[in-house]
């Protein structure tokens, strides 16, 4: 979670945050949206539901939208295909997948953006304006990988195209190709959240400020979900015996993480459990 949009803290084992500059963030995002023909909404592939903004249709209005399931290299391929079909059916939007390691999906993304932007460009041309490049921006919740998507799109062309007629001067644009201009500032969708289940899942993937939770509490919740859906993967990774419970304590014992007084180092174990999951070391999982 961006410190610019929310302040957070842990209360009685729950993840809590308080509205800080939500109205300001929403106003800024709407101003950015007014500049573009289409948007790329980035979701975390590990949380295809929980990383979505509930009021995205209201926020975007009639703006054409491409949904991009990012960090797809961290999830199971078949599950990802199933979720792609489900989201397309539920949202009536095109859904593509992406990750920061590969660029073979780049043409699909740019071609779809051109296609989504064409109706608005045609409407402008009917008013007597000359054809111009499609204008697009990347939006999404904190830490879903918006910047990595922007970096991927701008990798082959770093040419800034500067201010445009009718466009706020502070906005910076990058020419992706002759047909697309990208607003190089990611649109951060402000967090409005009172669902603890969703809040914990966002914490699992580091989309909530670390000030909002304690590693141990979140790591224990993560292990409960992994035990239910992907137990064998996690047992194998941490070399636990089948008759052992999947707990921080048993993982600490298996790694021999001991602190002064022969106590198990639960703090270190919690940090590693979260890090292993976030880096895809434990396995490729979808938690929704």
First-to-last CA distance: 19 Å
User: What does the average pLDDT come to?
Assistant: 81
Structural class: alpha/beta
Can you tell me the overall shape? elongated
Question: How many β-strands, per DSSP?
Answer: 11
Radius of gyration: 21 Å
What order do the SSEs take from the amino end to the carboxyl end, as H and E?
EEHEHEHEHEHEEEHHHEEH
Q: How large is the share of residues in beta strands?
A: 15-25%
Residue windows where pLDDT falls under 50 for at least 5 positions: 1-12, 161-169
**What is the helix fraction of residues, given as a range?**
25-40%
Number of helices: 9
How would a textbook summarize the main sheet?
7 strands, mixed
Q: Would you give an account of this structure?
A:
The protein is an alpha/beta fold and 288 residues long. Helices cover 40% and strands 17% of the residues. It is built from nine helices and eleven strands. Helix 7 (215-238) packs across helix 8 (248-255) and helix 7 (215-238) packs across helix 9 (266-278). The longest helix is centred in the last third of the chain and has 24 residues, at 215-238.
């Amino acid at each position: 979670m961006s410190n610019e949009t929310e302040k957070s803290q842990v209360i009685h084992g729950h993840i809590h945050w308080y509205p800080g500059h939500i109205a300001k963030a929403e106003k800024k995002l709407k101003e950015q949206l007014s500049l573009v023909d289409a948007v790329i909404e980035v979701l975390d592939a590990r949380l295809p539901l929980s990383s979505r903004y509930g009021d995205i249709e209201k926020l975007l209005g009639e703006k054409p939208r491409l949904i991009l399931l990012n960090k797809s290299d961290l999830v199971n391929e078949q599950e990802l295909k199933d979720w792609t079909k489900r989201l397309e059916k539920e949202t009536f939007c095109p859904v593509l997948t992406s990750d920061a390691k590969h660029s073979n999906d780049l043409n699909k993304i740019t071609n779809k953006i051109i296609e989504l932007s064409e109706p608005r460009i045609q409407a402008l041309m009917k008013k007597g304006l000359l054809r111009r490049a499609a204008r697009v921006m990347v939006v999404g919740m904190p830490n879903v990988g918006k910047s990595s998507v922007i970096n991927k799109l701008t990798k082959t062309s770093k040419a800034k195209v500067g201010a445009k007629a009718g466009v706020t001067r502070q906005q910076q644009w990058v020419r992706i190709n002759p047909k697309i201009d990208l607003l190089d500032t990611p649109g951060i969708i402000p967090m409005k959240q009172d669902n603890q289940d969703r809040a914990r899942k966002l914490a699992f993937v580091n989309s909530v400020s670390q000030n909002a939770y304690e590693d141990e509490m979140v790591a224990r919740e993560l292990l409960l979900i992994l035990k239910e859906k992907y137990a064998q993967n996690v047992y194998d990774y941490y070399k636990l015996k089948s008759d052992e419970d999947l707990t921080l304590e048993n993982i600490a014992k298996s790694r021999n993480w001991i602190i002064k007084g022969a106590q198990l180092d639960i703090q270190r174990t919690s940090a590693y459990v979260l890090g292993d999951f976030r880096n895809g070391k434990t396995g490729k999982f979808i938690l929704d």
